[in-house]
Amino acid sequence: MSHTLSSIPPYVFYELDARRAKYRAAGKTLIDVGIGSPDGPIPAVVVETMQRVAADRALSGYPHFQSHPEFAAAVTGYLATRFGVTIDPARELLALAGSKEGIAELVLAHTGPGDVVLVPEVYYPVYTRSTLLAGAEPVFVPFLPDGRLDLDAITADQARRARVMIINYPGNPTTVSVSLDELARYVAFAEAHDVLLLSDLAYSELSFDGYVVPSVLQVPGASRVAVETHTCSKSFNMAGVRVAFMAGNAAAIARLDAYRSNIGYGVSTMAQLAGATAFLHAAELVPPIVAEYRARRDCLVAALRTGGWEVTPPASTMYLWLDVPAGFGDWEWVDALMAGPGVVVTPGLAFGDAGKGKFRVSLVQTSEKLLQAADGILTVGR
Asked: 69-103, pLDDT tens digit by residue?
C-alpha cells in the first residue's frame, strides 16, 4: 500500500457498514435510513433504452473518450432548458462514471504537494480524501449561521496556495440551499484568487415548496473559473448505472480529460445512452420522483414534530440533518438506534469533525417505514 493511501484515516462509512453487518448477522431487522442510496425504480423509458442498447453490437467496442454524441446533445439541451446555460459540448463537457469519481479526478488532476483545496467544514468525504491522495492540504472553510461559507475566514496564504475550491449546494448532509446571488459570491472569490471553483450539484432536481435549485454556470462569466458536476443518481434513481457529467471551464475540462484518458477509457456507452434518455425526458421524469421525496419528508417531519422534536423541513435534498440528543455521543447514538429499534442513521462525524453532534437521515424508505424509524428515534431519544 502506498504511503499516501496508508496515511488516510479509516473511512467512517466502512465502520458504519461493519456495525450494520454485525446486527444483521445476529438476526436484527434494520430500517436503513443511513446511506443515501435511492430505493425508487429507474424510470421505465430509461430501462427500455438500456434493454435496447444491450443488444447493440456497438457495445463490443470501447466507449467514446469524452462523451457519446447522444449524451452530449441531451446534456446540452438539458442545461439550456433547465438553467438557461449554453455550453460548447466539444470543449466544456465531459461524461463521468458518477460525479464522485469526477470530483476526485478533478482534484487529482489539478493539485499536488504544497497546494490547498478549500472544502466546506461539513463535507462529502471524497472532497478531502481525493485531496489527501493528491498530497495536497484540505483547508476547511467554516459556515456562517445561514449555511453560507465564511470566505473571510480563509487566510491570505491559504488563498494564495489554493488551486480548487469546492462548494455543494444543496448540501449533503446539511441540506442547505442558496440563491444565485450567493453562487455569484463564490465565483467572484475564485476570480479574485485564481482558484478553480468546483460546484457539486448532485441534488439539482430534488427541491420542494417552490424552491428551484440554481446552477453556478448561470452566474455571468462563471465558465472562466468554474466547473459543475451533475448526476443521474439522485434525480432519476440511477445510482447503480454510474453516469454523470462535468461542464464548465474548458481548460479544467481538458485537464480532467487528459487525466482520465491516462487511467481509463471513457464511460460505458450503455450508461451514457441511459443518461441521455433521462436528461431528454427530465421534465416528465423528475416531478413524480420529487413528489415521492416530498411526501416522505413531510411524513417524517410531522412524526418527529408530533414527538416533540424541532425539525425544519429542508427545501432540497433527500435528507434530514438532525441534532444528536443530549447524553449521547455520535457512535453511542448510532449503536443505540441499531441495538434497540433497529434504525440505521449516519453519524455526523462521517462528514468531518464539524459534523459531530449531528446525524443524517435519508429519505430512502417508504413513508410507512419512515414512520417506524421516527418512532424508534423518538423512543431512544427521550
From this structure: 999 999 999 999 999 999 999 999 999 999 999 99
What is the distance between the alpha carbons of residues 373 and 378, in angstroms, rounded to a whole number? 9
Do 23 and 51 share a domain, yes or no? no
Buried b (16+ CB within 10 A) or exposed e, 179-197: eeebbbebbebbeebebbb
**Final residue in a domain of this structure, among 281, 311, 331:** 281
For the sheet containing 196-200, what is the strand order?
A: 93-96, 244-248, 226-231, 196-200, 162-167, 116-120, 137-141
Residue 124 makes CB contacts below 8 A (sequence gap 6+) with 100, 168, 172, 200, 351
Domain that holds residue 199: 44-281
Phi/psi at 125 (5° precision): -55, -30
CB atoms within 10 A of CB 267: 28
Is the same domain home to 214 and 121?
A: yes
Q: Are residues 233 and 100 in the same domain?
A: yes
> Do 69 and 17 reside in the same domain of the chain?
no
**For the chain, how many structural domains are there in total?**
2
Please tell me whether residues 319 and 276 are part of one structural domain: no
CA atoms within a 13 Å half-sphere pointing along the CA-CB vector of 39 = 18
Model confidence at 31: pLDDT above 60 = yes
Q: What average pLDDT does the segment 204-230 reach?
A: 98
Residue with the three cell numbers 429542508: 314
Tell me the CATH number at 270.
3.40.640.10
pLDDT of 1 over the 50 cut: no
Cell numbers for 273? 445512452
What element of type H or E holds 167?
strand 162-167
Regarding whether 323 and 244 lie in a shared domain, the answer is no
Kind and range of the H or E element at 149? none
Average pLDDT, the chain: 96
Cα distance between residue 279 and residue 186, in whole Å: 27
- pTM over 0.85? The answer is yes
User: Do 20 and 152 belong together in one domain?
Assistant: no
Distance CA 370, CA 346 (A): 15
Q: What is the maximum span of the chain, computed from C-alpha positions, in angstroms?
A: 61
Contact in structure between 317 and 203 (CB atoms under 8 Å): yes
